[in-house]
Amino acid sequence: MTQTKMPSLRRGLRLREAVALGVGGTIGGGIFVLVGEGASAAGPGVLVAFALAFVASLAIALPYAELSCRFPLAGGGYAMTRAVLGDHWGFFMGWAFWGGYLFISGYVTVGFGGYLAGLTGLPPVAGSVLLIATSTVINLGGVTLSGRWQNIVILLGIAMLVVFAIAGIVTLRPTAITPFFPAGIAGVGAATLVTFLAFGGFDMVAAAGEEVVDPRRNLPRAIILTLLLVLGLYLAVALATVGALPAGELTGQAPLAAAARQVMGPAGGTLMTVASLLTTAATANAVLIVTSRISYAMARDRLLPGPLARVSASTRVPWVAIAVNGALFAVVAAVVSIPLAAKIGGFLYVLHFVFPLVVLIVVRRRATTDEAGFQVPLAKVVVPVAFLACAGLFVASGTTGLAGGTLWLAAGAVCYGIKRYFS
Could you tell me the domains of the chain? Predict the structure, then answer.
């Protein structure tokens, strides 16, 4: 019996769209939602937490960039892990990757709902569901449409953030950021996990690797550019934020709007609310892209139910995976709080980076003739630092992150066992 060949994904993301995907997946939930959580843990010391999180992210991103050249496939780190370590480890890496972003979608979409509620009075959950529905429709329209929308939204959001950062820094009083370490080193450590999530996004580019034009050249450039572009913006915005309000007043669902209102008056609050809506919407769009591609890739490899691998013949996107993940986003938004989503999502997100680090070691020891277009500089230093960073971030996720992450992995073990038994 002749099988109908499944349509392949379309390479529609150039360097500009790939960077917009990474930056969009980074700055929305990161700065608009998590800056308040980080400030509540460390006070002004959250600036140091951002710097430490950047170092950890860079150490992890460099190996990811090399592997993305070697394996420019849908599913990113999952595809890399399965290709080198096989189905068993590939499944658990993909399951952790998928679960991490599902929980991350919670604080992104709930954050959007909180900002929209402040502007319109619409209940936060209703706003979250509205965003999810819109992102799902845009993604179903094709990766090129989604990438172009990402470009426009991110440029507008960044411009508004820059205006707030300049205004906040110009009016900053030194007494507003003293004491700098009110919770000591422990507070900075706790904030580092949260701020590490704020740098999450560079791996989204690799997850869409099968849709990136000239991946060996553009994937590593997009990954590294994503981190460099957001670092300066984060530090400037975080400084303006903690200088505007005490940490205790930044724990609501719209912390930057409250800070901008303090610095620039009611117009500033409105400006920052609009900026937050744009960038958290871009993040939700990026997270939907990555989760749908992970589940699509796993289904294509027969590790998840087959319908998730269906690709639209017209738009060439995994439409079933997009629809299913959109529905899961709505469930998470309705039942999970921002702190809980950050801790569980953080644990799983960090875990998924451990697998590609092992993969890089294995690939290099095999000494394949297929050289990557990009190679990690000082790999004997960078890779151990990346492992240490992951270990530290595991500790920072606490018992809540460990318990929630373990439950998700246990559910994955059950699903994998059932799938293997009936296949």
Answer: 15-366+382-422 (1.20.1740.10)
